[in-house]
Amino acid sequence: MKCVDCGKGRMVMKRVRVPHEIRGVRFEVEDEARVCSHCGFITIPLAQADRHGRLVDETYRRLAGILTAEEIRQVRRRLKMSQREFAEYLGVGEASVKRWETGVLPDRSSSDLIRLKTDPEAARQNWVQLRSLLKQTGHADMRPSKPARRVSPRPGVSGPRRGAASRGRS
Question: Which backbone phi and psi does 132 adopt, to 5 degrees?
Answer without folding.
Answer: -65, -45
